[in-house]
Amino acid sequence: MNANNPASGAPLRIGELAAATGVSTSALRFYEKHGLLGKAARAGNGYRQYPPEAVERVGLIRLAQRLGFSLEQVHSILGRPGEPLDHEQILAGLQARLGEIEQMQATLAAQHSGLTCMLGKLQAQWQLSSCLPLARLLDGETAAEPPTAQRKANAR
Q: Which of 49, 73, 87, 118 is least crowded, fewest Cβ atoms below 10 Å from its Cβ?
């Protein structure tokens, strides 16, 4: 096995860890600074040296980010680097994130419905060569027919 191969068990320099994980060296330094990644040992020349397990840890961090977790949430779910993962903590974090996503979906569905309704009513109003007053849009009143007083004024 190659000494630069994470599977070899040899420590990895920051560039090697970056290449193995597809993460920039600045991101790795950030993860280390904020406690997401364990503090790297230093070689005699001052280079950071990460244990091979850091590849898996960075992979977990990136996976959590792709799933929408903030780095603060990742830190609380994964715990301290080098310690065993708490399965209950991971499950609780996943369930909480799923709840957040479901709430966002409900909010987006309501917004979609409101926009679809507004779009339809505006298009219907414009087909009648009439504009819906902005005040009615802001109040949420988007009826396709103008109010009786406005219809009378338009008839004159």
A: 87
38 in Cβ contact with 78 (< 8 Å): no
Give CB contacts under 8 A, 24+ apart, made by 84-88. none
* Amino acid (1-letter code) at residue 115: L
Closest C-alpha among 74, 63, 77 to residue 31: 74
Measure Cα distances from 36 to 22, 61, 83 in Å. Answer: 17, 8, 12
Residue 84, pLDDT above cutoff 80: yes
Q: Biggest alpha carbon distance in the chain?
A: 92
Looking at residue 6, its pLDDT comes to 61
Q: Are strands 41-42 and 48-50 parallel, antiparallel or unpaired?
A: antiparallel
pTM equals: 0.71
pLDDT tens-digit readout, 123-152: 888 888 877 776 666 666 544 444 444 444
In whole angstroms, what is the distance from residue 33 CA to residue 29 CA? 6
